[in-house]
């Protein structure tokens, strides 16, 4: 389990590099760091449990049980906090994404990140393609279209025009 958690934590940190423009708050990596720390602690606790079982130590097994109970309480607390603050996280991420979409001009690094995100997630805009109508890029192009990264991948002749929403 500790090895699995270590992998997940490392994967999240590695994936963060692709989306760091959307998650401007560096505390977004905190869950991944916590996961890695939990993995290290789990490894140590597992080692204590194995040694206590091998030696048939009542004190060691009692310590192991106490540690497991503390971990269970921490997990329940983390679940409750995640449930309570889920809307705040959602609004913070949407706010940050709207600000990055506002900076879109088709040439800057933020634009490349927006295009990458839309292509990878098969989406268009923060909620849908109509989010683009309020951006500076949409108003400056004057051709009533969204970026080509909004097009469905199987559409060959997609122009991103809003009068053809079935292609987006």
Could you describe the 3D structure shown?
By secondary structure, the protein is mostly helical. The protein has a domain at 88-167: Orthogonal Bundle (Cd81 Antigen, Extracellular Domain, Chain: A). Helix content is 64%, strand content 0%. The chain contains 6 helices and no strands. Helix 1 (2-19) packs antiparallel against helix 2 (30-55) and helix 2 runs antiparallel to helix 3. The longest helix is centred in the middle third of the chain and has 27 residues, at 58-84. The radius of gyration is 23 Å and the shape is elongated.
Which stretches of 5+ consecutive residues score pLDDT under 50? Answer: none
Number of strands: 0
> N-to-C terminal Cα separation, in Å?
41 Å
Indicate the proportion of strand residues: under 5%
Oligomer: single chain
* CATH architecture label of one domain: Orthogonal Bundle
What is this entry, summarized?
The chain is mainly alpha-helical. It has a domain at 88-167: Cd81 Antigen, Extracellular Domain, Chain: A, CATH 1.10.1450.
Question: Which descriptors apply to this entry?
Answer:
mainly alpha, 168 residues, Cd81 Antigen, Extracellular Domain, Chain: A
SSE layout:
Blueprint: H1 2-19, H2 30-55, H3 58-84, H4 86-102, H5 109-121, H6 136-141
């Amino acid at each position: 389990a500790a090895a699995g958690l270590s992998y997940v934590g490392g994967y999240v940190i590695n994936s963060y590099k692709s989306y760091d423009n959307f998650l401007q708050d560096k505390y977004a990596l905190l869950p991944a760091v916590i996961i890695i720390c939990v993995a290290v602690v789990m490894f140590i606790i597992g080692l204590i449990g194995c040694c206590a079982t091998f030696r048939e130590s009542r004190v060691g097994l009692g310590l192991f049980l106490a540690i497991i109970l503390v971990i269970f309480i921490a997990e329940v607390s983390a679940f409750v906090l995640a449930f309570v603050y889920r809307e705040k996280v959602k609004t913070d991420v949407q706010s940050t994404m709207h600000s990055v979409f506002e900076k879109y001009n088709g040439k800057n690094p933020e634009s490349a990140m927006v295009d990458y995100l839309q292509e990878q997630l098969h989406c268009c805009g923060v909620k849908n393609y109509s989010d683009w109508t309020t951006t500076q890029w949409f108003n400056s192009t004057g051709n009533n279209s969204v970026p080509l990264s909004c097009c469905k991948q199987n559409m060959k002749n997609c122009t991103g025009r809003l009068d053809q929403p079935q292609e987006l």
